[in-house]
Prior knowledge:
69% of the residues lie in helices and 2% in strands. It is mostly helical and 328 residues long. The chain has two domains: 65 residues, no CATH class; 243 residues, MetI-like fold (Orthogonal Bundle). A hairpin with a 2-residue loop joins strand 1 and strand 2. Helix 2 crosses helix 11 and helix 3 packs antiparallel against helix 8. It is globular.
Amino acid sequence: MPKDPTSDRIYKYVTALLSGSALLFIFLILVVLVQYSYPSLVINGLRFFTTTIWNPALGSNIVTKDGFQVMQGSSYGFLVYIEGTLISSALAIVFGVPVSIAVAIFLTQVAPKRITPPISFMVELLAGIPSVVYGFWGILVLGPLLLNYIEPFLRARLGFIPGFGGPIYSYGLLGSGLILALMIVPIVASITRDVMTQTPPELKDGARALGLTDWEVTRKVVLPFAKTGIVGAIILGLGRALGETMAVALVSGAANIPIHSLYSPINTLAAFMALSLDSAFTDPTSQYVYALVELAVVLVVITMLVNIVARAIVKQGFIRSSEGVVKV
């Protein structure tokens, strides 16, 4: 049958358009956000990135600054929120990644085949639970447990370590980290399990023939082979933690103060933006809204940087993993 050059061209251009649409959407989102936050960028300048004070001064008089109307005495700084975002996400990685990898190892290397599907289903079911449900569980169950038992225990036993001492104000930081860890476990565990199952059986059989135990096969064969995918899974989990809104908004304590210890209330970029929308629209100058949009720009840029770094790590990981899969 002769080829139809017209259909080939249509196929080529349609697939090219679809593949480039993601990049186009990201570009358009950034353009809209930067355009809408332009007044905040002009008025706040670098001070936006160097101060912890967020005071819209909604009850003050309207004045003109740099060609834009602003509330007299207003100040917008994002340091408190970026601090809460990064530290709570870091805690989520510290708590969630070991559990996720352990779950993946159990499902692929240890568990009998008859119980693997139901356990996998239960783990993946966690990803389908709405974040507001996690938030309410954090308020009703996790929060009191941390505040009354775990945090006093940590302060009594580890108070000499910076961050573990001092008065117990809230379960905000520790609770947010644990809730985020619980939310990233199904993502990291599922992807890690999938990449571990791709380990060639002949590699594992060869390692066992050399006398390696099951744990040594996992540590010296499976994990090195899957480490590139594991890094990618961790980065996806980090992206989930960075952008989480409702669960963190419910358990964080919504405090606009710097973090002093593990027992401090916090606020994150996403949670603060969601909680502040109502009051932001009462600003007659709209500068409050513009500043929130600038926070959104910061969050998008952080997410993009995380993915760029992940790609670089994954690319390097492929090179290294191919050179040293089995080291007896």
